[in-house]
Amino acid sequence: MSDTTQQDNPHGEEGSRRDFLYLTAAAFGAVGAGSVAWPLIHQMNPAADTLALSTTEVDLTPIEKGQAITVMWRGKPVFIRHRTEAEIEAARNTDLADLRDKQTDEDRVQKAEWLVMVGICTHLGCVPLGQKPSDIKGEYNGWFCPCHGSHYDESGRIRKGPAPTNLAVPDYTFLTDTTIRIG
Amino acid sequence: MGSGERKPFENPAIEWVDSRLPIFTLINKEYGVFPTPKNFNYFWNFGAIATVMLVLMILTGITLAMHYTPHADYAFESVERIMRDVNFGWLIRYMHANGASFFFIAVYIHIFRGLYYGSYKQPRELLWILGVVILLLMMATAFMGYVLPWGQMSFWGATVITNLFSAIPLVGDDIVTLLWGGFSVDNPTLNRFFALHYLLPFVLVGVVGLHVWALHVTGSNNPLGIDTKGPQDTLPFHPYYTMKDTFGILVFLIIYVAFTFFMPNSLGHPDNYIPADPLVTPAHIVPEWYFLPFYAILRAITFDVGIPFTDIVFVEAKLGGVLAMFGAIALLVALPFLDKHPARSARFRPWFKIAVLVLVLDFFILMVCGGKPAEGLWVPLAQVATLYYYAFFLVLIPLFNKFEPRLDLPPSIHEAVLSCCSKKKQCCSHPTEAA
Ligand code: HEM
Ligand code: FES
């Protein structure tokens, strides 16, 4: 900003130059405060070692048809169910119009026999019942969450109760015919 | 507080300090000669009682922290060790656990006092809002404290409550991961909850300081809800209310220690003596009793809000429940601005009086519903009770503004106290509610 303009119009120019300095100073301050705040917030997100634990390998051979096991993955239970033909058929014959979170059974499994899902109710995070033969399985013969009464079907899809979505399917790959890696 | 107007003290040591830092002048002004309405009833004891409980929680909390280990593998055992091996550990822990309950009892009664006598109204709106901030901070502190023993209720309570944030559209899941520091409630969660549980009570002390500061600007309300008009309406705080507060505090503490010694677990849940197990959810997850009314409101929203007979949903049941729960507290903040009726105290508001007493009953009904499994008749009952809670603030209060009559206010506190004496032919040394 040259001296001449300042002399021509001392008030206006002086004012806008000061405004400019205020704005740049404030912008600088905001960027500075933000760059200090971000590490302080981001430290709360999962740390590197927590992320490193995020795959689990599972051998499926011991699981008989009609049985289910629960494994831990990222601190959460994962349900692995070896489904019977009847269960698969029931899941596949469900009318999509009856579903809250519309998804076909085919979209939820890689191999029809093996249903792999995160065993956490999509309402507020309880572990639904239905893994053990003695458990209540709910009105749709799948899983039942006792916390606030959500019912899931043979494919882990939400059918009744407050949960908004189906039980989540994690990323997993079949390493061989009988082992999977979750995560 | 300019040192110019300061009156010198006779004691030379006090005078030496006070002339350099007028702290004795301050104490005398705010708690010695402070003019206080002379018609307080016992409801006015609960601010002081709450303050005592806050101090007690900080003292017992710091001593517990000397023995507690904030790690998922050791937390439960370190608490058991406090109970069995640490000298007087059992006493300190029971004092802290029951202390939280009694802190909430005191504050809930304190809030009721404010509601009933219209203490939230002009000019005490900000004082009231600071009170709600105190309530929120207390809730956050108590919630995180309950996670620390790392029992089944700790773990699953933490899971359910942190998952509430997943209802927020778009960023919900990221917020939950941020809160957990992982992919489920786990050691990082416990560790940070301990850090915050240690911090928040000191923030509370700060906000209580502001709350009391605001109180000393407007002066206290009183059971008649009319302003003080001069010295004939007031008494100096000391010795009149220092004595009355001390008496109230002692009675309250007697009940509190009776619980602490004779039924220390009656307000807790036995499942919290089972170590946390991330694979097994207890059959009934219930929060601590002081959260039950809000938990009932959360669970009362079992339906999506959208266009009927279509799949279009604006607010899913899950988000709706969370909004309804936080809304219940937001309504308290809004109350001073919703209520425009000219009388403060319910004594001069025949309709409001009934409505506010029904609200108290409603609060207890919600508390019972929140403790029951969400099935059968409990669900519609909680829904009706939630409806009344909202209607009180959003329908009844605006209607009262327009139509509720105001009974005749007495000309002054002084005259009200005297006329009460002559009418009933007995002297009211304590002009409490006649009803
Ligand atoms: C830690 C919790 C709290 C402490 C330690 C505390 C402390 C106090 C104290 C010492 C007083 C003066 C004595 C009295 O009138 O009883 C007071 C007054 C008051 N408090 Fe609180 N308070 C707390 C929570 C709350 C909450 C949660 C609310 C409302 C939501 C609230 C609303 C008020 C109001 C409106 C007054 C003025 C009352 C009047 O003079 O009528 N307080 N508080
Ligand atoms: S957490 Fe499963 S129904 Fe609420």
What is the structure about, briefly put?
With 183 residues, chain A is α+β, with helices and mostly antiparallel strands. Helix content of chain A is 28%, strand content 21%.
Give the helices and strands, then pairings:
The complex is a heterodimer of chains A (183) and B (435).
Chain A: H1 3-8, H2 10-42, H3 48-52, E1 56-59, E2 68-73, E3 76-82, H4 85-92, E4 114-118, E5 143-145, E6 150-152, E7 158-160, E8 172-174, E9 179-182
Antiparallel strand pairs in A: 1-9, 2-3, 3-4, 5-6, 6-7, 8-9
Chain B: H1 12-20, H2 23-32, E1 35-37, H3 46-65, H4 75-84, H5 89-116, H6 125-147, H7 152-163, H8 172-180, H9 187-218, E2 234-236, H10 237-262, H11 292-300, E3 305-306, E4 313-315, H12 317-338, H13 350-371, H14 378-403, H15 413-424
Antiparallel strand pairs in B: 1-2, 3-4
Helix pairs in contact in B: 3-5, 3-9, 3-10, 4-5, 5-6, 5-10, 6-7, 6-9, 6-12, 11-12, 11-13, 11-14, 12-14, 13-14
Bound molecules: protoporphyrin IX containing FE and FE2/S2 (inorganic) cluster.
